[in-house]
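Q: How would the structure tokens look for this protein?
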Amino acid sequence: MIERYTRPEMGKIWEDDFKYQTWLQIEILACEARAELGQIPKEDVELIKQKAKFDVKKILEIEETTQHDVIAFLTNVAEYVGSVSRHIHYGMTSSDILDTTLSFQMKTAGEILLKDLEELKSILKDKALEYKNTLCVGRTHGIHAEPTTMGLKFALWFEETKRNIERLHSAIERISVGQISGAVGTFEHLSPKVEEYVCDKMGLTPAPVSTQVIQRDRHAEYLSVLAITGGTLEKIATEIRHLQKTEVLEAEEFFSKGQKGSSAMPHKRNPITCERIAGLARILRANAIAGFENISLWHERDITHSSVERVIIPDSTILLNYMLAKMKDLIKNLLIYPENMLKNLNLTRGLVFSQTILLKITEKGATREEAYKIVQTSAMKVWADQNKNLKDELLSSDEAAKYLSKEEIETIFSNDKMLKNVDYIFKRTVLK
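A: Here is the predicted structure in token form.
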């Protein structure tokens, strides 16, 4: 029965054997519930439990004729159970089985993804602490801005991973519903107590109201959370790809012995894992859009959603499981080059201190516009001439000299004060 799949691998959840085991479990639980209500003999239920089994190959053969998967399944199970099979599927519709099973599969898959995310969060925390004070240049619009630290990059990803965990918890709770409510959700031929019994045993909650199906906004939310999580992984991958550029080289994917980067150029070390993650995130987003399209169905049900879900839900859960495994390994073995970070920080020859100087001049009484003009005039000279640096330009500026002494300018150009609030930020996130 389903108990032997308590902690399955992700792929197993979506195989026929797991699916049919879950179908059979639900059917047997429904019979147990009806026996508890005195509607069928308990000895008949015991006989069903003893004899009930299925053959995946045979079910698929029967389905070739019936063109109906649940009927094919029930026909095959009845071949093993015999006359007491008349109690199986009593008062139920196919979607009672299909949708309750899908919820169970999505819940089980989601719990695996939660474990992956918790592990990634732990790895990111370790890296954040390790590189908390490793100074590097911050970039906005791809251009050097002010200094930050590599640890803060990891802390940012850590915090976003926490949010993804919270979102996934919520999505799992929302999808963990079942229904055993009949052809249009009215319990015409079954007591609601059957649904309550089955859902309780499956670790699900009865859908408060259903039609012939569980409503697809639940599935859309789940898929959107997977897509958002994929977006986070893409964000991390994109940053690492930039940091691995030859002219940047502040971080790099681990390159194993014997690994090859290019069939044409033996020197190449490419960020292939990051590029793979960035590409696969697009599939998660596309699948989420398909999930949104499934929300609107005709009346109490049509089947426009079902064929789509057979692809997008298994694919998305398996895909994110794979992406998280790759990201965990990537971050754990990421190569960091602090010396290149310092070299790059100094590439603009002091320009990263421009705001500090701007604010200092305003503190001395200049308007912001005046201060901006003084600093920008010197900064543009540095941009135009590779031999110039901002400190020297300010020291030779008559306008700057009206507000700042030589000693004050010298003091401004120090990296030490850049780290003064890093501990404060870490207390709000990684160390919280």
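The radius of gyration is 31 Å.

DSSP finds 18 helices and six strands in the chain.

Upvote if useful.
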